[in-house]
Amino acid sequence: MAQTRIGSLAEAAANIAVGFAINWTANMVVLPAFGFHVTGAQAFHIGLVFTAISLVRSYVLRRWFNGLRFGHSAEVAK
To answer: I need a labelling partner for 21 at 20 to 30 A (CA). Which of 3, 44, 53, 71 fits?
Structure first.
């Protein structure tokens, strides 16, 4: 059975929330290990930037693969 739009939205929201939490935690642990001391607020803002980049990347790849799946090139996929 195909996933409903609401199901897709719930999955995407959960993916973003979990990814953001992992990103924030990684920023708080990894950056100080490399000499960059960040506050929780700074880690949050860094996380927002990387989350936006991830959303764009995921969208572009999904549309590209969708075009491949149906025999269309990325230029003609709508």
So the answer is: 3
Residue of 15, 49, 42 whose CA lies nearest to 28? 42
- Give the contacts of 4 (CB within 8 A, at least 6 positions apart): none
Q: Where are the alpha helices (DSSP H) in 1-78?
A: 5-33, 40-69
User: Long-range contact list for 64-68, CB < 8 A, 24+ apart?
Assistant: none
For residue 63, the model assigns a pLDDT of 83
Q: Tokens for 27, please give them.
A: 């920023």
Ranges of residues in the chain with a pLDDT under 50 are: none
pLDDT of residue 39: 96
Residue 44's pLDDT is what?
A: 95
Q: Are 16 and 51 in contact (CB under 8 A)?
A: yes
Do 46 and 38 form a contact (C-beta atoms < 8 A)? yes
Prediction pTM value: 0.67
